[in-house]
Batch of 4 targets.
Target 1
Amino acid sequence: MEFGMNSEPRAEFRTGFVALIGRPNVGKSTLLNVFLGNKISIVSGIPQTTRHQIRGIAHLRRAQIVFVDTPGIHRFRHKLANHLNTLARRSIEDTEVILYVVDVTRRPGPEEQKVMMVLVKQKIPIIMVLNKIDKGKKYVNDYIEGWKDIVGKREDPVAYYIPVSAQKATNIDELTEAIVSLLPEGPPFYDPQTTTDFPLHLRIADIIREKIFESLTEELPHSVAVEVEEIEDKEKVICVFAAIYVNRNSQKQIIIGKKGAFIKNVGIAARTEVEGILEKKVYLQLHVRVLKDWQSKPRILQELGYC
Ligand SMILES: Nc1nc2c(ncn2[C@@H]2O[C@H](COP(=O)(O)OP(=O)(O)OP(=O)(O)O)[C@@H](O)[C@H]2O)c(=O)[nH]1
Ligand SMILES: [Mg+2]
């Protein structure tokens, strides 16, 4: 109990789930990481980087926010993409707030309208997060007006429009405050030490995939998957064995690189990051496997944690 002349009534604790929704490459995962002050979700310039539903928990003084990062909503070509869309849509259910993230450096097109059509039909409050304002504000109004056109005479689920830069951490405090204002009162779901419930083997697989993505261009990343097959905790070192899947032999050659240089660099970068998370020396062994059309094979997708 708090007593004293100046003591204000104690504000209640607020908790809730907040889904990050938007098209590929708009900066959802970057935003998640900036909220947590910690890298949980991998980021790359290649669209469709995120393939899992990843929860990150932000612990504030009077609130606990469970952010749910999702794959970008996009047109599907095969089973994997279809699954990613389902994940994104399913994440909307059971959340208290939707962060609808858009990229203001790009003009909103028909694909954006489709996302808007999905969002306008549901009742959960939305914050439209206008991201990448460090690159200018050219299309900010196009997004706001585009949304209002779609809302028409309906009830508008958007509670706030907040321009931010996830990369430069601009306006993140304002955004956090807006989120908390929309959360219901309730006790925390997670204990204060937990920052993510993303399983370690999937997190390491994603880190390896990110390092591959960083060095590849255009189409090839969509042919790459990583599976962590074994994690062995020995006394002084943690041994991680991982397979990199590609669709064709020519892709395998690219991943291995000249005299093994590509895969070696991926291994070094991934190992360094994993050591930072585990705070222990890591031995990382990578090998490349050709698996034709893995994106359409339900069993493989399941093994990769994509289903
Ligand atoms: N200039 C600028 N770039 C940003 C900002 N936020 C993210 N990016 C860049 O945008 C690209 C995509 O970022 P991600 O966070 O991976 O985007 P995403 O929405 O999670 O993408 P998917 O997982 O593919 O759906 C990366 O190259 C980021 O560095 C920002 O505020 N400003
Ligand atoms: Mg992402």
Target 2
Amino acid sequence: MNPLLSHLQPYPFERLRKLTADVVPNPALKPISLGIGEPKHATPAFIQSALTNALDGLAAYPATAGEPALREACARWLHRRYDIAVDPATQILPVNGSREALFALAQTVIDPSQHRDAGGPTVVCPNPFYQIYEGAAILAGARVAFANSDPARNFAADWSSIPEATWATTQLLYVCSPGNPTGAVMPLSEWERLFALSDRHGFVIASDECYSEIYFREGPDAAPLGGLQAAVQLGRTDFRNLIALTSLSKRSNVPGLRSGFVAGDAAIMKAFLLYRTYHGSAMSPAVQRASVAAWNDEAHVVENRRLYREKFERVTPLLAEVMDVALPDASFYLWAKVPAHLGGGSDEWFARELLAQYNVAVLPGSYLAREAHGVNPGAGRIRMALVAGVDECVEAAQRIRQFIAERS
Ligand SMILES: Cc1ncc(COP(=O)(O)O)c(C=O)c1O
């Protein structure tokens, strides 16, 4: 067996299942889950029919690079969304969801033979973070360094906490903007700083942008800044050492389709294509055609955003009266602080008791983070995914208010 497998951490939902295994949720109330961040809005009918109308292509193996039509649709979307020019022939690859690509990218760019004296190469991650980053780093033979999120700076990752000696061994940096679970969007100034570090130390930046289309504000600067867009604004039109990962899962409510794309540095893309060819990561032709339809349409994304906006507008003020929580920059999560007088401010206590008494599932924040720099930056927080319908989300917020009010 690969000994590195034993270093993988249990997934947060596994930990939640264990935590609540002996809990009997209040049977008088209908269960509401704000736990798992899985989109629940309906998949648009035109995407479903594009998929079923494409079943004639199943008798041939698809190319790992994907059909030119798909890469061109992705390039056109990047142009419309970010006003940037990306070459569909050399700077874009389809992926079967961003999750597998986040993992596979680490296997492509990490060289475990380097920095042996320093304990091996490093992958830098935000903390809290999407758990795949850590597993990808471990299985690629790297160690992980964490930059904790700072609640005082809109949950920005504190990149300055990573010592220069660690940056010197860093081969890959994961950025998650908009962030899961904090929803924070990284501003241009932070990008400038990370690009400078990447230039100095030669590491690759993987920009995980799967929540880029779920935002709540309106106006010209409302849409989150993308990594490639930041690069162009800073004159880095070759996207050197930068790969952005974009997904249809949340944008188009198709987490089951498994479709996204990566775009950026052509040299990395070439190596990534080689890796993916051996790994067997080609996208089904039917999925490719459904994806073209999805990337070509924006109306369903506007409607999707409207549904999330309505939920956040109604739920956030209800919760903000009883706990420290605010509208995030983007994403579909609320990242709330457990009031100190409840279970000593413990996120695990809150998740267990809320489930037992009010049949609402939330995820303890400490499960999404690791202890680093002396703290677990997720401890004492809970993540609530507003993925259910509006009425259910409002009902959950009212139950949480009652749960907190009863103890105040
Ligand atoms: C931060 C983040 N990145 C990537 C993903 C993976 O999304 P997909 O593989 O569906 O594109 C998720 C899914 O929840 C996520 O939260």
Target 3
Amino acid sequence: MTVDLACGTPAFLDLTFAGLEALPAAGEERFAQALLRSPGGGASTAFAEESGHADSAPVVTRAALDPSLVTGRGASVDFAEQEAENAATNGTIIGPDRTAYTLPGEASGRKAVKLTPGQYVEFTLPSAANAINVRYSIPDAPNGGGITAPLDVTVTGGPRNTMTLTSQYAWLYNQYPFSNDPNAGLLHPDWWITECGCVPAATTPTPTITKPFRPTHFYDEQRLLLNRTYGAGEKVRLTVPAGSNAAWTIIDLLDSQLVGRPHFEFVAANVLAFGADPSGRRDSADAFDKAIAFAKVKHLTVYIPPGTYQVNRHIIVDNVTIKGAGNWYTIVKGHQVDLSPPAPDRSVHAGVGFYGKDVSVGGSTNVHLSGFAIEGDVRERIDTDQVNGIGGALSNSTIDGLYIRHTKVGMWFDGPMTNLRITDNIIVDQIADALNFHTGVTNSVVSNNFIRNTGDDGLAMWSEKTADASNTFDHNTIQTPVLANGIAIYGGTNNTVSNNLIADPIREGSGIHIGSRFGAEAFTGHVWITNNTTVRAGTFELNWKVGLGAIWFYALEKNIDADIQVVGNNFLDNTYNAIMLVSDFPVKDLYSITNVHFKDIKVDGTGTSVVSARVAGSATFENVVARNVGAVGVNNCGSFHFTPAGSEFSLTDLGGNTGGGTTGPWLAAWELPNTITCDDRPPVVPPPPPSGW
Ligand SMILES: [Ca+2]
């Protein structure tokens, strides 16, 4: 979702000052201390450099955590993640740091390894592998647009491969919808910005704005099939050649895996028979269309054999099955095409994508896509461009085993539509969301997908105009969305978010978000948020200048009063609070959040409180167990009237709410039901790393 927080007034700044007079005396001192912190400081430790260590026993992680801490959560994948900061290197470890606009802040685990030419990082394979994926960052060109630079890959006893790294898909700057120009002035000088706490165009003298302004989206990733299979214990060394043109190369992590043989489909409409070019030199779009038309007549599957196929426009799919040889082998790759004049849908660019028919012409049904990669060429965010990997309306359809990168949104659906199953896909390096169910998507499932490095929400349901209903996001892994949230639900009916693993959201969002905003329909029926784990979530909201919760509820445009059950979730290493319920200053007396129920929750480590309530309403708590809590258990501001009746937000203790931290039990009797404890910027106490419960 487009964030709109940068627009308008700094409401929460005003609001907090309004709240100052109501603070208890002890709180005033802490509040004053909090104000002295730098705006971007977050809960992070200062940018620390330390030299890497030399031992090389493999440390396999999931979202930079010991896998035993996240058993059963997130996607089951066929690769092993190893963080560079745990590998052997003669480079320099950067981080930990959770500050937005920094290289460690966007790294998995908030740490990475910085190499200069001649330096290396070396990973020990934990199991047999014939393929790797490297997540990395290299500098932008001085005037934007990216550079390419080499990275040598050697495995014990094997030949040298050289990857060509690129920053052409990385490095965005400035205000929404962002720019590739590091030297650009403000895109919206008439918007309030947090950096000066002012509207620059309306301020005299004009404030000096540091350039590049708000650099972000630093990382990209790249896959490589090795020449043979290497055994466990063999060493993958990534070396920056001494003559590299990149001043530095940051390695965040390595994934390694054993890729199976290509899949062949012998009785099929093979795209090669219709003129497709597996070398990628000639455009294959028309050949794909012909194969699809033939397959429909003959009731055949369309097969795309191993190869790279150039496709620079949408392939329209309806009532067809398309299979590739596997997403390591069959790559459908496009380059961006300028459209002049714009297309009827207002797109000014075309790009590769598989699209169902638009709902205005009936949508598509019975589409089954599997086993190939879609690689786009999207380098900037233009929200009217239809340059998504998958799009349109797809009812009664399946999407399985795709790998999608460098598109605007991996999969963006415009309903109404129903019964779509999306399983076992990898979506990385997106300009915006990985997946969005937009408008009336129903009875659909998104399961076991792996998502990393989106430029907006990882998985979203956006009930604009028509409610999304009876959908489930289950067992997905979402890492390092550089903007917005891991999973966001904007309105809708009877939707479920279960068994997901969400790590390292970076700014203007958090792990799980339930938001009444962006013109969404109301939440009705129930919302079930069950058995998810978040880690290192809760960003520092740069405009409000408060920390967000790992899960946050936001009543901006309507009440949130559906039956919301938050059960069995683990919130680990929360940067600020674990649970936030919030409204916005101009509407704080209009909208409330009620009927939210928290049960069987584990909170391991909060920089500040367990619960932060900055809205009118109520919630119940049962068996919410917390430890390593950095501030008072409940930050209760209500709707900021601070009357003798107490906060406008009430908590109900249903029992079993134990544990706490530096300020005692997290849910102490004195806090109930609605004691005002409003202290929005307490000192952040970074918790110890999560451990077994
Ligand atoms: Ca890392």
Target 4
Amino acid sequence: MYQTEEVNIVLSDRINALAESQTIAMAKKGRELAAQGFDVINLSFGEPDFQTPQYIKDAAKKAIDDGFTFYTPVPGYPELRQAIVDKFKRDNNLDYKPENIVVSTGAKQSIANVVMCLVNPGDEVIIFSPYWVSYEEVVKLSEGVSVPIMGTLENDFKVTAEQLEQAITSNTKLVMFSSPCNPTGSVFDAAELEAIARVLEKHPQVYIMADEIYEYINFGAKHASIASFDFIKDRVITVNGFSKGYAMTGWRVGYIAAHKEIATACDKIQSQMTSGTCSIAQKAAYAALQGGKSAAEEMSAVYLRRRDLVLDLMKDIPGFATNVPNGAFYLFPDVSYYFGKSVDGKEIKDSFDLSMYLLTDAHVALVSGDAFGAPQCIRFSYATSDEKLVEAMERIKKSLAKLQ
Ligand SMILES: Cc1ncc(COP(=O)(O)O)c(C=O)c1O
């Protein structure tokens, strides 16, 4: 018989150093409580609550019927790479060729590819903080050294060019950020990106990974890309994908646009790790781009309405200090007002305690800010129905009122 108790499994230092994705962990806990019969409202998810648009689903069905069941070229089908080139021209006025594009199994893989291809052990990677959970972990996997620099709430959580200038050393290899940002929803405008680009111009050993996966969920001015500054373009890797804008999280299609040598390196690492992403999902992604941005714009209008709804409800909750996010579908209030308060003899020491309390008392799942490098904050995803948002905010308000 297979005796699991007697087996001493020795895992690598690499995996032991890695943290479990907190967003996924929180979602798991929420599901466990729901399985026990509690009515849990899950605001911890980082994904649209919308179904993928029908025309994209239809393209996937057709791909199956047309026999697209074989391995795909590692960097993606040529027509999908060309469609991505066309998208960069249409949306961002950026000129690329298919050789600059690598399609991957989600933007997550794109990011991992880039970091693995650029970062040597000991290299410093500057991460604009608050940051998306996986950035720091993928740097760890590459044995790089994360250097988070924190944007302040007063500056809409955005890191400034001056802060960046101070953080760059001769060991800096890469700078990573998302705009629109997960978790803060803040969006860099063209002037802010230009100031950052001017700093990077002075440091030719530094590469820049701009994660633009929330590009289509932007409530403000036209989306700006740091790759549009020619003087650093060769060093910019733009990451994007289909998960958020086209509500295609489960399909797993992301991509990069980068200098040919970086793209070739990503192709090489991907050829050993996963090969080309799913044939059917690629056909669906191609159809998504052919359909333009209208489905994304419709969803974005709904997110904007929900943002305003939750911001309005948040005004009734004492001690939540928040920015007004211009993109993505998150709110990221500073909740430190509640630290040191107690309920039933139990003290809330940090945002993790607060998120656990709100999960067990209000049955609302959120993600504590330490997962994003901001332990004073908590992340709300408002990618859910108005009814659930109203109910969740009501429950949160009641639970917080019990804290003394
Ligand atoms: C900022 C950011 N980048 C990348 C990703 C990964 O996206 P994908 O589903 O395409 O792997 C996410 C997903 O939550 C994200 O929030």
